[in-house]
Prior knowledge:
The structure holds two protein chains of two kinds. By secondary structure, chain A is mainly alpha-helical.
Amino acid sequence: MAMKNLAGKTVEVNDEGFLANPNDWTEDMAPELAKEEGINTLTEQHLKVIRFMRQDYKEKGQIPTIRRIKNASGVGVQDLYALFPEGPAKKAAKIAGLGKPVGCV
Amino acid sequence: MKKLVILGAGTAGTIMLNKLSAALDKKEWQITIVDQNETHYYQPGFLFIPFGIYTRDDVIKPRRDFFPSGTEVIISPIELILPAENKVKLANGKVLNYDYLIIATGTQIRPEELDGLTGDGWRQNIFDFYTVDGAVALSNFLKYWKGGKMVLNIVEMPIKCPVAPLEFVFLADWWFTEQGIRDKVEIEYVTPLPGAFTKPIASKFLGQFLEKKNINLTTDFSTGKVDSGNNKIVSWDGKEISYDLLVTIPTNMGSDLIARSGMGDDLNYVPTDPKTLQSKNYENVFVIGDAVDLPTSKAGSVAHFEAEILFENFLRKIEGRKLEPKFDGHANCFIESGFGKGILIDFNYDVEPLPGKFPLPGIGPFSLLQETRMNHWGKMTFRSVYWNLLLKGAELPVESQMNMAGKMRMQQ
Lengths: 105, 412
Ligand SMILES: Cc1cc2nc3c(=O)[nH]c(=O)nc-3n(C[C@H](O)[C@H](O)[C@H](O)COP(=O)(O)OP(=O)(O)OC[C@H]3O[C@@H](n4cnc5c(N)ncnc54)[C@H](O)[C@@H]3O)c2cc1C
């Protein structure tokens, strides 16, 4: 695994740049991670989603799906795609310092 | 008397009933099974109905044909599970008490989850084949179709039998060729996944098949709505795909019963221990088949493998022993590929589908991730295996845990 410098801390990341350990994450890393995903400014709405995902992950031990985010955070799917274009589940999870969501089988 | 209640008499519930009924002492145990209707559907057969290979009659039998004597059978929708009180409420007003509960209520399609899907085009030029009615309606449509653009769209993952949509387009390619109109039909496969299938090696292999059969593949398409006035599907990020015929795989969700009972996740799947199949929240509740929230395929073959493990664990549980964490996510799927051929994949939680041979004592090896006539034969024989052996809980010559014998590890 590679190491990377984020917000002045050195953290371990996997080959797709997801944090290896969610506990290494602090909110000040989010803007840098967002830039990697092509999101230049994080708005309050972005942060609402990211904070929800962190909280839900802490409670449930699972990275929330789009459907989960929609049902439990109140941010609609259309808005999620506008905030995190192309792949909201994956992008938001990366910015929130969570692992890559498990694919489907 | 100790009481076991099984909810759902589909593939998984029926197998568990037969296995446990044979093993539990009738003087000590009362077993009750509940389902909302009398008819058992052989769902894998739905795939063949649109092409006139099977009819409705080929895929249905009375559920009661598969229940052992001495079972209390109740036909009624289930209203609510009260897991803290060990009670189940039925829509017919009856309340069942249980010592142990097995949840096997499966998963169903939810076309109403997608904006516009059940609008004007529904069953006009938009069809599903995950229900018998949908499959029959599609069959009637295809009989008279003169060609155009057929789009197969998976709305959202996970879906049960994730290979069925691929099989559908493979068979469609064959069928339109037989009808002499293949040159008038454009086929497009539209999926939210990054490739043709869920796991990388199989995805690449099956992607090549689509190409060979001249089926266009569109990946990473998360469907947001259907505009049936203009015959278009639209993704959440505004991409549009037009169709003349839309074959949809709608959102799949577990029973609303699970949501009403506060026992499910956002898709009404029940949190389940991945290795023992015990409910994560209630120690006298077990979950099997499509109703679980586990990262393996929702398939009849998986329900069968789970049943072997759950059977052992159930007996351990009632004898006060520790459960064996033995379920490995094993799945085994024949993929019908058209023109009398098929492909077989075998995998589990950790090992993705690999090429090689799949040994089957007495019958001979099947080829894995390779197209053969033998695999097609396996697929078509499955119906009689299902009715005559699988549902009755018979031992099949296939191990419940995945075996690496015959499989080839590849350098990626
Ligand atoms: C088109 C298609 C093709 C398929 N092909 C294959 C294949 O090739 N190979 C394979 O292995 N699998 C295949 N499958 C998947 C397979 O059919 C399912 O995985 C399997 O049937 C799951 O069994 P189950 O018992 O969990 O659910 P089901 O068999 O669906 O049973 C669930 C039961 O619960 C009952 N129920 C639900 N809610 C309630 C309620 N509230 N009250 C009362 N009753 C209720 C339902 O009536 C139903 O009888 C296919 C499925 C489809 C749709």
